[in-house]
Amino acid sequence: MKKFFAYLFLISISFFFFGFKINAPYAYQIAVLKYNGGGDWYANLETSVPNLIKFCNDNIKTNINPEQGIVDAASSELFNYPFIHMTGHGNVIFSNQEADNLRNYLMGGGFLHVSDNYGMDKFIRTQLKKVFPELDLVELPFNHPIYHQKFDFPNGLPKVHEHDNGAPKGFGLIYKGRLVCFYDYECDLGDGWESAEVHHDSEETRTKALKMGANIISYAFTGNDKK
């Protein structure tokens, strides 16, 4: 996390996070990534991440600003947020500038969660390769700590929505031993965080999705330690 603090200093951010006391009502804010290519980066924008934030603040005692941010992939404001969520159904294109910015953000301590809302997979894989040409997405084993934070998921990701009748899978980009990006596929966690009236998912399904989301937040914010 020290490298990330260095980035924060360079862009004159006036607050610190990840457990440091600050003179502000909230310790940090998380954001949705806005990207180019025609894909609907704004899918689930109204209730998904706000519901996850409320669940985390209520259940794992985070102090996240209830208002989500929205940030462009090329913006220096990316470094204001320790955690970025990305979703959509279609095409994704990162310019060279955007890929470099995301790479610096992730190398410096930031965390990216990608949730395939169905139709994103073939695009996001090539674009993540542009960000980290030397890395491959690897499927995380069920004993990975991200599945065993406050909430235990011994069989990995919960199934939220059926896409192609496949089992849900969690993939990661691991840079110098640190998971910098978590990608849920055939799962649709972001849809599961939405308010009940949006997709009419059962309370059980929504709760599982929110618990898994809280695990991802916990993993990203606490140095990957189990809480």
Structure in a nutshell:
This protein is an alpha/beta fold and 227 residues long. 32% of the residues lie in helices and 16% in strands.
Question: Which stretches of 5+ consecutive residues score pLDDT under 50?
Answer: 1-23
Shape: globular
Mean pLDDT: 87
Coarse structural class: alpha/beta
Write up this protein.
The chain has seven helices and seven strands. The protein is globular. It has a seven-stranded mixed β-sheet with strand order 2-1-3-4-7-6-5. Strand 3, helix 3 and strand 4 form a beta-alpha-beta unit. Helix 3 packs across helix 4. The two termini are 18 Å apart. The chain is an alpha/beta fold and 227 residues long. 32% of the residues lie in helices and 16% in strands. It has one domain: 3-Layer(aba) Sandwich (Rossmann fold).
How is the topology of this model organized?
Blueprint (H helix, E strand, L loop, with lengths): L1 H9 L20 E4 L13 H12 L9 E4 L10 E6 L7 H12 L3 E6 L4 H11 L6 E2 L29 E7 L2 E8 L3 H5 L2 H4 L3 H19 L6
Parallel strand pairs: 1-2, 1-3, 3-4, 4-7
Antiparallel strand pairs: 5-6, 6-7
Helix pairs in contact: 2-7, 3-4
